[in-house]
Amino acid sequence: MFKKVKTWGPALALISPTLVLLAVFVYALIAENVRISMTNQHTARPSSDFVGMENYFRLFGDADFQHALRNLLLLTVVFLAGTLIFGFLWAWILERPAFGEGFFRSVYLFPMAVSFIASGVVWRWLLSSLQTDQSGGERTTGLNRLLDSVGLGFLQNSWWSDPNWGIAAIAVPAIWQLSGYVMALFLAGFRGIPEELREAARIDGCSEWKLYRYVIFPQLSPVMLSAVIIIGHMSLKLFDLIRAIVPDANTYDIQVPATMMWVKYIGSDYADSAAIGTIMLVLVALVVVPYLVYTSRQEKR
Amino acid sequence: MKASRTKERVTWIIISVLVLLYALFPVVSIMATSFKLPSELTSGKFLPSSWTGSNYEQILVGSAQDLFLSSLRNSIGIALIATFIAVVLATLCAYAIARLDFPGKKVILTTALAVSIFPVISIVTPLFNLWRNIGLYDTWPGLIIPYLSLTLPISIWTLAAFFRQIPWELEQAAQVDGATTWQAFRKAIVPLAAPGVFTTAIIAFFIAWNDFVYGISLTSTEAARPVPAALAFFTGASQFESPVGAISAAAIIVTIPIVLLVLLFQRQIVSGLTQGAVKG
Fold first, then answer.
1. Which of B129, B210, B278 has the CB atom closest to A226's CB atom?
2. Partner-chain contact A18 B146, CB within 8 Å
């Protein structure tokens, strides 16, 4: 008994404040959230009749919610593709010994430091669609105007005001903000590849392409997986950026579960907002938990 | 040889300019907007034709002063307190993880870290109910506690990674050389651990400072509303004026300290943020 206390005691004393805090304010609240989602508390008036999975069934049958889920998928795909491509490109450029590496690294990372709320202010303007002013003439602002002035007028579009593809426009600022982070991940990955490995491949007569295909990419795949997980779960949770660009959360074009949850929450429909919250939690868990299991298994080996 | 080098230079300069435009354009344009007169906001021109400080005046000493300055005070206070508590708790935890061996360590670490992936928004509803019942709604502690759950996991993660690299034998070596336990800890370990703790503090501060979801859903008045949430409540000087100029000015003011921190300590922050991910 005494021996047990000796091994457990000090560690428990050190970690228990954190554990208690997280258990009460995260895990217990999640349980409470699930409970609310199974009640009929659809108004501010307290009411807690148990209705089982009814709210979930209704949500999944709701065309608006299906649209929000589809939007979320599109957003995540574009966001992932964009950050991975740009992040890899930046890292690839910086990885070669060239002047100004520190400078470029700061510049790339700079967007990450700006909060979504602050940058959203300007993106709202940049991504504004074609507008018709009072005299009936078309007035362009933001990126559309910029594209027009550099002769790329054909690229003008309505950005986020499009029910099918609008959400992809929201990914543009998100990509801008986070490619620097993905770059930092890739850069660390590049640094982890021993120079001898490349030399050996070159001596064996590997072409540059084959060197990347068979030596560099396989070595980078764990980093890439981390990047996919990190960016993927950020995308599933994305709310503040959308809210900053389109202040009215109840806008069909850019509706994702997070904004829809907000609309329900503001409208005091706590049961539905809790249900959407739970669905988002499950979505994120589906992405992250297999990854955590996979990495912990790898470590054991 | 010489020609190709010049060519390389030119390519590099072109790339640098493009990169700078890409990275800085949005922020520069917020800055430009923050110096515009309200009448110019819809002109569609990028730079203001006459620079004005009226937006800054409005939020610092003018009509929006109450809204902005109180939220700035809230943001600074709440983020600093949350950061301090998070770093203290995370240091204890990370020390236990890095130094002590106890059964179930892995499970505890994973469940604690798993918190960081949960969507904040999925606990907003019960938190709102709870806070209203116990009177923490729209107060500083009402935000500090959820910020702890946001910042603790990543703080533990980064600190544990830092602590694992510290050569703890130094402590014993110092004791062999005649130092007391406390001296050994203070003179040998603290200087090595300090950079890690400092980096963690920056990352934690950064998360608390930029939070929006809790800020907007758990506050209702100037008593606790932090800046990112307050920006949503800005209105123009009159009902017909767009508040975009004032919002931009406020956005610039709250962004500058963060940008400076990141630029000054980018090397440490990058290593802190990538360590866990790359190792995995």
1. B278
2. no
> How much is the pTM?
0.83
CATH of the domain at A212: 1.10.3720.10
B-chain residues within 8 Å CB-CB of A247? 232
B-chain CB neighbours of A273 within 8 Å are: 124-125
Going by C-alpha positions, the residue among A146, A141, A122 that lies closest to residue A131 is: A141
- Angle, helices A270-300 vs B105-114, to 10°: value is 140
3-state secondary structure B32-81: HHHCCCHHHCCCCCCCCCCCCCHHHHHHHCCCCHHHHHHHHHHHHHHHHH
Phi, psi of A39 (to 5 degrees): -110, 180
CB interface of B with A, residues 149-168, below 8 Å: 149, 152-153, 156
Tell me the one-letter amino acid at B50. S
CB A132 within 8 A of CB A138: yes
Closest residue to A122, CB basis, from B30, B90, B258: B30
A34 belongs to a structural domain: no
Instruction: Assess B100–A contact: CB distance below 8 Å, yes or no.
Output: yes
Contacts of B163-170 with C-beta under 8 Å, sequence gap 24+, read B163/B94, B163/B95, B163/B97, B163/B98, B163/B99, B163/B193, B163/B196, B164/B98, B166/B98, B166/B192, B166/B193, B167/B192, B168/B99
B103 Cβ under 8 Å from any chain A Cβ: yes
Nearest by CB to A21, from B29, B127, B149: name it.
B149
Looking at chain A, the whole-number percentage of residues with pLDDT higher than 70 is 84
**A244-276 tens-digit pLDDT:** 888 777 778 888 999 999 998 888 888 999 999
Query: In chain B, which residues have their Cβ closer than 8 Å to the Cβ of A278?
Result: 122
**pLDDT tens figures, B44-58:** 666 777 788 888 888
Are residues B100 and A22, on separate chains, in Cβ contact within 8 Å? no
Number of CB pairs, chain A paired with chain B, less than 8 A apart: 243
Given an 8 Å threshold on Cβ–Cβ distance, is A108 in contact with B228?
Answer: no
Residue B87: per-residue pLDDT? 93
Q: Chain B partners of A145 at a C-beta cutoff of 8 Å?
A: 44
Residue numbers of the domain that contains A288: 64-300
Residue A187 lies in a domain: yes
Domain count, chain A: 1
A30-59 pLDDT, tens digit per residue, is: 999 999 899 888 887 777 788 888 889 999
B28 touches chain A (CB under 8 A): no
More confident residue, B147 or A222: B147
Assembly ipTM: 0.79
Domains in chain B (CATH in brackets) are: 65-233 (1.10.3720.10)
Q: Which residue of A has its CA nearest to B107?
A: A296
Query: CA B84, CA A161: separation in Å to the nearest integer?
Result: 43
